[in-house]
Structure formats: structure tokens, C-alpha cells
# Entry
Amino acid sequence: DPDLLDDEAWTALHEHGAEVAYRVILDLRGFYIKAGQFMSARPDMLPHAYLKRFRTLQSEIPRGMTGEG
# Structure
């Protein structure tokens, strides 16, 4: 089924993009971590793969990376 292949391709693309974006967010820190946290709580903004990856920004960020004490 061509639609299934398209869905699988999009899923793989989103999973890869989510991981790349996550790493960039961690590198940039501060505001970008906060923005990622916000977006992880907004299922209307991003594909599921991004939401799932960005949710780790809620609880797995070392202290001090967000610019807060």
C-alpha cells in the first residue's frame, strides 16, 4: 500500500528530525530548552515524534541548563 509506505517514511523522517532538534536544543540551552518544554505540551504544534522526544526536556535536563538556579 503506497499510503503505508508514505506514513512509514514520514514517521522515520520525524523521528530523525526530532532527535536532531533535541540535540540542538540541548546545545543552545536556556530559552531553547524552555521552548522545547512548552512545545512538548502542545500536541497541536508538532508531530508525535517531536512531542515524545521533547517530553524528556520536562524531567531529564541537568540542573542549570535552563538558566534557572
Summary: The chain has one domain: 2-58. The CA atoms of residues 3 and 49 lie 19 Å apart. The helical segments are 2-28, 30-40, 48-54. The chain is about 65% helix and 0% strand.
